[in-house]
Design a protein that fits this description.
mainly alpha; 6% strand
Length: 160
């Protein structure tokens, strides 16, 4: 299997829209939990802290014969919990560094490596290209949620 240009473009740049989406949003809105769900900042932290997990999964697919992965649960990830206490600039900076590493890894793989398979508990056997597509679609879902929360007129900022 080959990497297609739009996949590589999205992998390289998709996450950069987050800064644009939250530019101008009151900082007091970022930690607001709508109906007990994740806040804007928690969605961003989740995306940032999942990248190293995803890199580890790709590495496992490259190193092992068809490894199986459980569904990732951020609320059980000590790195997610720790990073919620970091400043937004640090979180975004870490995200950019990890994305650069992820992009370098994926874009350097041979067709044979891209054909390697890892098993997802819900979605079954996925080759590396399908894992990357899944990663980007998952990220896009959270980016859409960030957009929705940033523009939700009913989301009341936390008191100062």
């Amino acid at each position: 299997m080959k990497l297609y240009p739009t996949l590589l473009d999205r992998l390289r740049t998709q996450h950069t829209i987050i800064e644009q989406l939250i530019r101008g949003v009151e900082k007091t809105r970022l930690p607001v939990h709508p109906d007990g769900k994740w806040s804007i900042i928690e969605h961003i932290v989740h995306l940032a802290t999942y990248q190293p997990v995803f890199i580890e999964r790709i590495q496992a697919i490259l190193d092992q014969n068809e490894p199986t992965f459980e569904r990732y649960n951020a609320d059980n990830d000590s790195n997610f919990i720790r990073c919620k206490g970091l400043g937004l600039e640090v979180i975004l900076s870490n995200m950019n560094v990890d994305r650069s590493d992820l992009y370098k890894l994926i874009s350097s793989l041979t067709p044979e490596q891209l054909d390697r398979v890892g098993n997802h508990k819900k979605f079954g056997r996925l080759n590396v290209v399908q894992w990357v597509e899944f990663f980007l679609l998952h990220e896009a879902h959270h980016i859409l949620t960030i957009f929705q929360l940033a523009h939700d007129v009913d989301l009341v900022p936390a008191p100062s």
